Structures are given as structure tokens and as C-alpha cells.
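Appendix C: a fully annotated inverse folding record. The material below is reproduced so that readers can follow the format used throughout the book. The structure is listed first as C-alpha cells, followed by the designed sequence.
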């Protein structure tokens, strides 16, 4: 899972949940967003866990059938439902691909199936590591409904291979400007090929059906054209929708360690953090320090690739030699050996 600030799950303050189960629990804003999107009469949730998403579904659906393989999680889920006096959720403890469980569920007129797959621990994640396999989920539950939504790890590398056999939308969720979830919406649940949604604002960006000729620059040196630099939400970068975002705001793309947008206009988006460009100079430390002194900087946040063990040493190198009060951010264009000194707007 992507690194992100800890977020509360629904009714966390009312529930006594062991810490080891909180780590992968669905954050409140994510749970509420998906529950609203998938509201229906009868929803089946596979891999329900301790109920972060289940509780949200119960408030939008007439009935929820929650299947959880792990006994401890199923027990906590039942306890949570009881504490909150939720009565429209049926909990089934067992394997979601077990034929007897599927047969039991099939007695209901199922509208939507939502599956939260198990997350592999490996750094390099592929579809083959996801359990249960996505194709098995679809094979076993398609006879019940074609409306299937499957959550998988956001950094799964070979998602595109699924498009050979299935019709789906890849929706990346950003929570407070951090990549948080990836959900695949199949068949009738699909609204586009790929999308990113920023939570809690719900600002949405979708892929373009036509080829986009993005404006790319190799340097920010032309100060007259580029007054502002924008860092981009990681969810947009991972989803490969940077071109669409640049086109939306008629901005240029500059590839640093991560892509940023450049523009002479100031605009607002929950996918962007705006900075005003103060100075552009050589990336040599002595030159950067000279410019920092001239603009009266005192605090310098490094916003480029640097080994974690070196971050504070480099930052102290600058700040110990500065007497100003301004807070600035330092970006580095390694290819052009230029430093871009900015301040947040």
C-alpha cells in the first residue's frame, strides 16, 4: 500500500479495534465515497475485514452480505456491527470462492459485488500475486451480477493486461494528496478508461480518448513564461494522467525527479500544490546558498531526490548559514543542472 497519513475509519472513536487491524482498514472518506458510488439494494462485500467499508455500505444499501475468511476479523466485524446496532448486514465467515458460500449468496438478487483483495507484501506487485486472483473472482461471481468492483494495490504493474479479456475502469483515489486506493470497476460500473478522484473534495480527472500533445520543456529558465511551479498529486502521476492534467490547465510539463507543471497563471486544483518561482540558478551548492542569502531565506525544504540519510545534512548546510526569515522550497532540475527556488503561494 502507498504511504499516507493515518486516517480514521468510520466510527473508530466508538469501536475498540486492535492496532494490527487498523493498518489496512478503509479510511472513512474513502469508505463513504465508495459506498455512495455503489449504493444499491443488495451488495456483496468480499474480504470485508473489520468493517471499515462494510459499515459505510450498510448506510447506503438495503442489505449487505459481508464475507470474511479470517476468523478474528469476522469476529471483530460482528462486534462492531453489534456496537453500532447495524442490522442490515449478514456476515459470512469463510472463503469467498467456496462453492457453498457462493450458492448461499446466489439465493439473493445481487446488484453489486465489491471485493477487497489481499495485499501482497512484495515491493514489485503483479496480478499473479493478488489473492484470490482477479480472473477467478470474475469467473465465480459474474453469474450473480456483471457489476463487479475489485480493489487491488495501486502499484500493481500489469493492470493493462486485463484489458485483453475484460472491460473496466481503473479509478485511483487520492486521500489528502496521497495515493490511497485503486479500484477496478467492471462492465456497467465503468464510466471511462481511467480516472483519479481527490478526496475529500471529489475533484475528478479522467483519461482523454484522443491523443494529447503535451507541452514539455527541459528548463524553467524562461522566467517570463513560468511564474508558477505546481507539484502534482502522486495519484495523477501513478495513473499516468499527467498529460490530461496539464491540458486541463494549459500548462507545460517539466520532468524533475517527478513531473511538475509550469505556468504563468495561478490556478486552483486539489491535484496541485502551487509554488511561486523566486529564483532560478545553477544547482551548485555555493550558488544556491548565495541566492538563498540574497532573498532572505531562513528555512529550506528540499523537494528533490536525495537519500533519506543525507536530507537533514544538506538542509542544515543551508539553514546554518542563513539568517533570513523566509520559508522556501528547493527543486532541482538535474538534467539542466539548475535549481528552482520557490515559495508556497
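Designed amino acids, in order:
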Amino acid at each position: 500500500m502507498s504511504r499516507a497519513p493515518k486516517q480514521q475509519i468510520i466510527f473508530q472513536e466508538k469501536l475498540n479495534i486492535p492496532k494490527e487491524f487498523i493498518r489496512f482498514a478503509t479510511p472513512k472518506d474513502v469508505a463513504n465515497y465508495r459506498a455512495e458510488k455503489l449504493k444499491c439494494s443488495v451488495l456483496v462485500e468480499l474480504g470485508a475485514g473489520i468493517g471499515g467499508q462494510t459499515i459505510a455500505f450498510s448506510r447506503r444499501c438495503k442489505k449487505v452480505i459481508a464475507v470474511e475468511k479470517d476468523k478474528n476479523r469476522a469476529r471483530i466485524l460482528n462486534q462492531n456491527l453489534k456496537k453500532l446496532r447495524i442490522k442490515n448486514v449478514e456476515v459470512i465467515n469463510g472463503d469467498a470462492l467456496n462453492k457453498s458460500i457462493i450458492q448461499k449468496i446466489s439465493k439473493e438478487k445481487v446488484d453489486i459485488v465489491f471485493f477487497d483483495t489481499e495485499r501482497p507484501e512484495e515491493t514489485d506487485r503483479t496480478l499473479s500475486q493478488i489473492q484470490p486472483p482477479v480472473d477467478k473472482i470474475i469467473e465465480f461471481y459474474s453469474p450473480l451480477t456483471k457489476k463487479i468492483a475489485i480493489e487491488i494495490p495501486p502499484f500493481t504493474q500489469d493492470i493493462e493486461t486485463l484489458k485483453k479479456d475484460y472491460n473496466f475502469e481503473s479509478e485511483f483515489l487520492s486521500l489528502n494528496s496521497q495515493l490511497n486506493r485503486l479500484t477496478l470497476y467492471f462492465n456497467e460500473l465503468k464510466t471511462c478508461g481511467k480516472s483519479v478522484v481527490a478526496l475529500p473534495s471529489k475533484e475528478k480527472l479522467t483519461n482523454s480518448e484522443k491523443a494529447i500533445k503535451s507541452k514539455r520543456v527541459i528548463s524553467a529558465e524562461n522566467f517570463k513564461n513560468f511564474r508558477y511551479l505546481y507539484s502534482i498529486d502522486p495519484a495523477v502521476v501513478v495513473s499516468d494522467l499527467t498529460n490530461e492534467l496539464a491540458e486541463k490547465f494549459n500548462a507545460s510539463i517539466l520532468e524533475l525527479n517527478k513531473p511538475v507543471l509550469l505556468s504563468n497563471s495561478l490556478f486552483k486544483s486539489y491535484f496541485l500544490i502551487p509554488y511561486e518561482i523566486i529564483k532560478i540558478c545553477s544547482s551548485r551548492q555555493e550558488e544556491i546558498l548565495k541566492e538563498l542569502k540574497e532573498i532572505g531565506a531562513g528555512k529550506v525544504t528540499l523537494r528533490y531526490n536525495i537519500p533519506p540519510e543525507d536530507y537533514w545534512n544538506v538542509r542544515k548546510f543551508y539553514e546554518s548559514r542563513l539568517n533570513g526569515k523566509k520559508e522556501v522550497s528547493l527543486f532541482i532540475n538535474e538534467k539542466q543542472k539548475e535549481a528552482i527556488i520557490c515559495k508556497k503561494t
